Amino acid sequence: MFKPPAAKRRQGGVTLIETLIALLLVSGGLLALVQMQMLGLRTATSATLRDQAVLQANDMLERIRANPLAIETDNYVVGFGELPAPGTIHGDDIRAWKTAVASVLAGGDGAIARSGRLYTVSVRWDESWDADLEGGLAQVELRTEL
Predict the structure, then answer these.
(1) What is the reported pTM?
(2) In angstroms, rounded to a whole number, what is the distance separating the alpha carbons of residues 77 and 75?
(3) Which residue in 24, 34, 87, 96 has the most C-beta neighbors within 10 A?
């Protein structure tokens, strides 16, 4: 029986090295897909929280518009961490608004500033899970002239 020389033999199959390289390339691609999914989830969550904050700030502006007697006064001015006394329309509005902000947004709080007829409503919340956000607090501000 005649055997061809080793140089002329054809390889039949895949070597272990080729299999390991293919596995490494596929694993790298799958890891990249997982990272993209995680980034998309983080971005979507952040956008949802920001949307909720804008809705809450807009709610407070509508409450201020609904009480025209208080527009020309500083009755609606309140800082972060402050609560007005209950029993007045503006006090009850602010207390209800701050309660809603805290229930919708983790660590959520709101503040209202006034300069003449220009009102600025700020809402901030805890986004410490987002490593890209310095200080862990996110904030939105809505300004309007009433």
Answers:
(1) 0.76
(2) 6
(3) 96
